[in-house]
Fold each of these.
Amino acid sequence: MADAPTPQDTIPAPAADADLMRQMFATIHLIRTFEERAAEEYMRGNIGGFLHLAIGEEAAVVGSVMALRPTDPITSTYREHGQALARGSDPRAVMAELFGRATGLCGGHGGSMHLMDRERFFFGGYGIVGGSVPLAVGLGFAISYRHEDGVALVMFGDGATNQGVLMESMNMAKLWNLPVIFFCLNNQYGMGTAVDRASAETELFKRADAFDMPSRRVDGMDVMAVYQAVTDAAHHARTEQEPSMIEAIAYRYRGHSMSDPDRTRPEEEKARWHARDPLITFERVLLGEGTVTAEDLTAIRDRNSSTVEDAVAFANDSPVADDATLADDVYAHPWTDDPRGSAEMPQVRP
Amino acid sequence: MTTDASTAAAVSYREALTQAMREELERDPNVFLIGEDIGLFEGSFKVTRGLLHEFGPARVVDTPISEAGFVGLGIGAAMSGLRPVIELMTVNFSIVAMDQIVNNAAKVRYMFGGQVSVPLVIRMPGGAGHQLGAQHSHSLEAWFTHVPGLKVVCPSTPYDAKGLLKTAIRDDDPVIFLESEGLYAKKGPVGGPDDLVPFGQAIVRRSGAHCTIVALSRMVWIALDAADTLAAEGIECEVVDPRTTRPLDLQTIADSVRRTNHCVVVDEGWPECGLAANIATHVYEACFDWLDAPIVRVNAADVPMPYARNLEQAALPRQEDVAAAVRATLARGA
Ligand SMILES: Cc1ncc(C[n+]2csc(CCOP(=O)(O)OP(=O)(O)O)c2C)c(N)n1
Ligand SMILES: [Mg+2]
């Protein structure tokens, strides 16, 4: 099992200031509160389909997203509520999408696994393991094509490193010097399969060695370590036009999705990682450094609780997606408006 | 339906599949199972529950998330005479392995002049109805049925699930075995260790004189519900379940249509170039002179599957849609 990260040479980046640290804590807490509440709503039947929670992984999510500029494109997996929230998506619109409501980020077409907030350069959560990796390479390609100085970041799991498309994507990114960060959120399991039962090389960041691409492992339970690593990688991509890979070691506290009773992972292991809960450890750091006071924390908690309650109420009160939107957005310019679909069905006049 | 009284107790579709694999693993040492999370985790739909414990990790093999890789591996193993039963977690992930399935599994026997067989089964659940959204709700029967070299099986009952899977495992060609997520809990009788259900034999699930409804997999149950509704209106439907789409038992379907002179085809996939379109074409070719009205197809809406519950329900074939289709074709023929 993975433990300590291997420190490697990094390009120095400015240390985060106190405001930013408070904001990171608040975002970690927001994601935790949002997802715990989403789990409840799932049990009540207000959310359907699959619901994958990133509870336990918030430090890696927040540290990576917040180290980027708001215009740096990111993609993620089906476990992406955190990316959307960290990017600043309206919690109301995220919750409403989980509820399948007209007011959701994607109008009810997407659901929990397929959030997107194009305005905020969050280019979506995808359901096929590995499937979104080349999209980020394409986003990086577009940045480079237009001579912009953005960086594309793709978040994928440990399980995804065994999809061939990851190798294809990394090779092209390095071959063409594209500004891409391959951010592997190694939560140590792909569903019920531990990394060492799926990967011959369990130091996943070494995948990059085959492409002569810089890579490193960081402690994904430590938001500042992740923040620093992604800051370095982004700086490197912007200045040197070189992609890189980061492997953040974290742990998911819930089952793979709400339908996984999580019976196969050892209790002792869960307890060990719970002891490193990013919410608690970061809180301790911030209090210790005097970055926040106990009153600050209470205020953050209260604000997040009411934000999430408000989001749930908003989702509850929102209209369901109109049946007439069923065939919307199959095409940019549809040639029929038959509400039962038939967006492309040949039509004959009687 | 059962040839002998066999197992009297009702068994779930899921357990029927487990029984088939257990019996075939016992019967033939060349049979092995391979797929993601099928061993320790017992399968994401628990179809392989207990099998790792019974047969050990050499014969129940957990894989990385590498569909193209382990489907290709299965094809290679089959070329050397083993009988892999691959589980793809769902049909949606077969798309990642489609090159291996279409270019290798389906073609190596033909391309190399019959020197090798590919006795391979690829099991995978599919279908929509659980709000899994656009990337996890496919019905790809038509894609696979399109490909010469593959056999395509779509069981609708526990009895057929077991009997057809046993036939698939003993078959010398690559078999695409499409399970329905919506049917795993469905209970019914199953056959014993030697009750095989042959490929290419449709079954009449309900007899009726007015209209033939051809339906597969989960759609059979929707068609039967629609037939109940219509019976109350004095309309008697004959529900024909082809059970395999390649080979397709056109004879049984045509015999029925030649009696009822009307036909509705129900298919959970998309309408364009779909399974219903294909079956309808066969029926037109075989029964044109017997038909009193155009065939009506009932398909999923022509859109990627939406997430929202109401939109998904609106997109899927419902029993009301089937009943309406039957009424429409009968009205035309009157
Ligand atoms: C191509 C493909 N195969 C299988 C699945 C089913 N599946 C969904 S998530 C998952 C595990 C992925 O693990 P990992 O990449 O580590 O991400 P995590 O879920 O741990 O965040 C699997 C096997 C899928 N969605 N896509
Ligand atoms: Mg994982």
Note: Chain A is about 40% helix and 10% strand.
Amino acid sequence: MKLPSLLTEGQSTFILDGNTVIQNHKAIKVVIEDDKFRLIMNKKINQSNPIDIVLNNTLLKKEYAIEFGRGSDLRVNFFFVIGKPQSTQLNIILKAEAKIDFNLVLIGKIKNSMIVDRFTTLNENASLKITTGYLTHGILKVNESVLLKGSDSEFDGENLVIGQNNDEVAITQNVRHSAKRSSSLIHNSIVANDASKIKFDIYGTIDKTMEHSKCFQHSKGVILGEKSWIEVDPKLIINEYDVEAGHGAAIGQINQDELYYLSSRGLTENHAKRLIIQGYTDPFITKFVNMNHQRFVNQLIIRKMGGR
Amino acid sequence: MATLEIRDLYVSVEEKMILKGVNLTVKGGETHAIMGPNGTGKSTLASVVMGHPKYKIESGSILLNGSDITELAVDERSRLGLFLGMQAPIEVPGVTNFDFVKTAVQAHMPQDKKLRIGKFILDFEAAAKDLQMGSGLAHRYLNEGFSGGEKKRNEILQMKLIKPSIAFLDEIDSGLDVDALRVVGENVTKMKSEALGMVLITHYQRLLDYIIPDYVHIMIKGEIVKTGGTELIAKIDVEGYDWLKSELGITELEETKRPVSLGTCATKVPVR
Ligand SMILES: Nc1ncnc2c1ncn2[C@@H]1O[C@H](COP(=O)(O)OP(=O)(O)OP(=O)(O)O)[C@@H](O)[C@H]1O
Ligand SMILES: [Mg+2]
């Protein structure tokens, strides 16, 4: 796919197209191995400016690994343009003490169907705040595994899925606590338009002896089309007593009380509905500090909502 | 100057008659108070005037400035000048308070006028300051996680900026601490003018110490059974409603004639 200029304008944006690095970034060390691309970011280059990465035309049977060194403290915007292949793998690894704020957007038209395997590993004291927007068109299957491997590690994952036309998105989230005092929090926001179908299977597992861990999952979804549906199936598998865990899901049509409240302040029904849906999408958009990125993501979302 | 007339209004919800012939006229410049025991239909009256879809008007009419509004949608009524400060304001996650209020104010402007954002920000900040609201509330999500008192102040903030011509404030005092009650009371009193007719729904005298009503109505079992002046407030505060019930010969008999559904246990608890 030809990259939109809003994404590539940045002088310092790291761009990887297929197996060619089009534009480098001083903070990213690239290691190319047989079956994988490793993008490594270390503590030395800690900076407050976010690092922008664009990955285009991913290759079949290749693994893309984003690795954060010990003690690194960074913000990353990652635009993942889904290409032709039918499957791809994205790994995120945080070494001990790494503190990472990560925005991930999946975009592009999927030809037939696509499987994305995601593996995220957090070592001791590492903390990852990651927001993912699934804004592709077509049939997408995601297998996401999060391993809290180091004690005191923290995972905070927010996901936004917007379905339109006949999109089908199936996401399996597997969070495993294999360390003491590890915590995970998942927030899924789902908007289903037209005849789209969106499914989440969420598993949270706390292994034996991993006491003082916390595992929470929340999902909310709004069904807009008469033929659209959303299914969320959360499961907690807890093998240790001394932990905190919980899950909740609120899926339904537009909330009538919310609609009434907004209308009572003069907003037309359509306007009120738009505002309620923006309530799902705006928190995602505002995660991007760069105005060009905000505009880009906003456009993607408007397009996903059928230009409404 | 606006006039709201409620004429012989009968309203039901889920086949149960709640309002049984309510008559009330509110004119710009007037302040009315409605008091009455729990569950007598005070909130129902306010909601019906606002157009809540849950309630069914069985008979009677609601006129705003002479025209019947019962067929109008909620948002149309709002744009005509009606406002309801709710007993339990709804939380709308993801929509920031500031953006929402801005949109609401915009919705009340004539189509060909555009909101001047700079001025609006100043107005918003001034209103928030008057109400002694924390500055963080502007950028929080609408009512989400707001404390009881913050929600109520936020209703008044909206009222100040939307500038309705007829406003119902449903238990705006519940959830407010003593100081907040004074702040809200003073703010509402400052809004009093020929351009605003108000209906305050409350259980307590303390609110009406700050916002002095011209008329006090007592509602019992879906009817306004007595109308008077401020002398009624003190009497109710001390004696409750029993004297009135016996004076008017209202008994609980009527209640027991109805089939009792043991399956229902969803009592509405006012936010405090
Ligand atoms: N959806 C509903 N289904 C059944 N009954 C309802 C419904 N909504 C309201 N009611 C009933 O209507 C009656 C009047 O309720 P309303 O909220 O108007 O009372 P209120 O006078 O405002 O009471 P309070 O002082 O407790 O706020 C109550 O008996 C209430 O249970
Ligand atoms: Mg009430």
Note: Helices of chain A lie at 5-8, 256-263, 269-285, 291-304.
